[in-house]
Amino acid sequence: MAEAMGGSVGLRFGRVEQALRLGAPSAEAWSYLGDDDGPTRIARAAQRTDHSGAALAGTLARVADDLRADRAQATEAAARRAAVLVVLPLGLCFLPAFMLAGLVPVIVAVFDGVLGASP
Question: CA 62, CA 68: separation in Å to the nearest integer?
Answer without folding.
Answer: 10
